[in-house]
Design a protein that fits this description.
Elements: E1 8-11, H1 16-27, E2 32-36, H2 39-53, E3 57-61, H3 70-81, E4 86-89, H4 97-100, H5 104-132, E5 136-140, H6 153-173, E6 179-185, H7 205-217, E7 222-225, H8 228-238, H9 241-244
Length: 249
């Protein structure tokens, strides 16, 4: 299956993985709409991407934490680049697990940015694509959502909820010819993970972006990147709860 060359919205465009995905899609000729909070960084990325790929690149200001603006983002993206063929949701907030255990505001921020905000934008995109009966949506969840772990259960629970949301959305939209792909990255060498200790299989964002676009072309429902994480998480899910809860993972 070849991804059509229609416009693609990248929500959370300044993240390391989003930049890599944008680059891969732009090289294939997709017009790109980069959406994020940092206007100057968006403009810099758009200029660089356009020069390197010769592709039409637009920008749009986007605050994931404000669901009331999400319909406006779709309107702006469509006005600038045309009706969307695809959308990539690449925003998220790792947060501070230790702080979240005592500070509800930190816990709430993690939960809302990773689940509620994503669900809100997905609601807008899904309704539009379902009506037009065309399109695709790719969403970055996380391997952290596959099993609750002591070290990051707040973030993991938000990503786990997002993964289940996407399962249902995928079933709903397949009837309209709209494809939904869930991406479960392991730790990636980006600003989000900078300074984190002991992260296993730390992946290069360029490699991750290329793997995601490759999976998109194949219409994968769920993809783990790098691929060894599929087996790693399968093993972790099979560990009995009475054993797993005693680990320090």
């Amino acid at each position: 299956m070849q991804v059509s060359k229609g416009p693609v919205l990248i929500a959370g465009a300044t993240s390391g993985i989003a930049r890599a995905i944008s680059n891969e899609l732009a090289k294939e000729g997709h017009p790109i709409v980069l959406a994020g909070r940092d206007e100057s960084e968006l403009q810099r990325l758009a200029s660089d991407l356009s020069i390197r790929t010769g592709t039409e690149v637009h920008t749009a200001l986007f605050d994931a934490s404000d669901p009331a603006t999400h319909p406006l983002l779709l309107m702006e993206a469509s006005a600038k680049a045309g009706k969307l063929e695809g959308a990539v949701l690449a925003f998220g907030y790792l947060g501070d697990q230790q702080l979240a255990q005592t500070d509800w505001q930190e816990a709430r921020k993690i939960l809302e940015l990773n689940f509620v905000s994503a669900a809100s934008l997905l609601h807008v995109l899904a309704s539009d694509m379902e009506t037009r009966q065309t399109g695709w949506i790719t969403v970055l969840s996380s391997v952290a959502g596959d099993r609750g772990r002591m070290s990051n259960y707040v973030y993991g629970s938000a990503k786990g909820g997002l993964t289940v949301f996407l399962q249902g959305l995928r079933a709903r939209l397949q009837k309209s010819g709209v494809h939904v792909m869930t991406v479960k990255p392991g730790p990636v060498d980006t600003a989000m993970t900078f300074g984190s200790d002991k992260l296993p299989l730390l992946a290069d964002p360029g490699d991750v972006g290329a793997a995601i676009v490759k999976a998109l072309k194949r219409r994968k429902d769920v993809v783990y990147v790098p691929s060894p994480w599929r087996l790693i998480m399968f093993v972790l899910r099979t560990v009995p709860e009475k054993v797993f809860k005693k680990t320090s993972l």
